[in-house]
Amino acid sequence: MDLTSLRALNIARKGRHAAVVVTDLDAGGERVILEGETVAGNLGDHVAEAFRSGKAAAVDVAGRHLFLNVYLPPPRIVVIGAVHISQALARMAPLVGYDLTIVDPRTAFATPERFADVDLVADWPEDVLGRRPLDAYTALVAVTHDPKIDDFPLMDALRRNCFYVGALGSRKTHAKRVERLCGQGLDESATARIAAPIGLDIGAATPQEIAVAILAQIVQAFRRRDTVTTA
Asked: Sorted alphabetically, which Pfam families does this protein's record hold (predicted)?
């Protein structure tokens, strides 16, 4: 890898941005493509698939033999609320390769005894997310049912383009939530990105089943997210 490409990759890593290094196997030379860039022709389709799968691949484009090497930031889940659903999610998320953090200012809920070996932060989301900002490789899950705790991280997640934003609550509860968020400056196209009621509709009833439904929806959102733009 040449020095220019290495510098571009290091900048991408520090900023938690995905990148693909495209190497011409016939003529030599390489190109770094960042997720979200416009890529012309069939190469754009191959690069988009590489970003979605996270797997390196050899491809043929217009008679050229190319190798695509993918560098993705580790996907993560930030859960707002130290509740029973969060306990189940904390056990399941590592199985599919997701780091997980739980944030809840309610110290009666956010205890090491209830969340052993979990990245648990007993503080207000406004303060935590100021120190540890969300990004496009983060899924935000809000499950406290308390607007004072949930609303700010939901707004922040939408503004920072998190690949998944979900919130617990009935349709009636969510309608009131949307009204509040729009009153704070979000438009309907932004709030439409919130998965609510949260999780895939599998008829989940217990906290463990709801956690399965949420995690499945997160994986679906990650694998189907928009990546490069094809020109």
From this structure: XdhC_C
Q: Letter for the amino acid at 15?
A: G
Distances (CA, A) of 160 to 40, 133, 156, 157: 26, 9, 6, 5
Strand-pair category, 64-71 with 19-24? antiparallel
How far apart (Å, rounded) are the C-alpha atoms in residues 102 and 87?
9
Q: Which of 150, 148, 153, 158 is nearest to 186 (CA)?
A: 158
CATH of the domain spanning 76-223, picked from 3.40.50.620, 3.30.70.270, 3.40.50.720, 1.10.260.40? 3.40.50.720
Residues 58-90 have pLDDT tens digits of: 999 988 899 999 999 999 999 999 999 999 999
Residue 28: other Cβ atoms inside 10 A: 8
The pTM for the full model equals 0.86
138: three-class secondary structure by DSSP: strand
Domain boundaries, the chain: 3-71, 76-223
Report pLDDT digits (tens) over 142-198: 999 999 999 999 999 999 999 999 999 999 999 999 999 999 999 989 999 999 999
Here the tokens at position 229 are 């733009």
Q: How far apart are CA 106 and CA 226, in angstroms?
A: 36
Beta strands 57-61 and 99-103, pairing class: unpaired
Average pLDDT of the residues in 98-113:
96
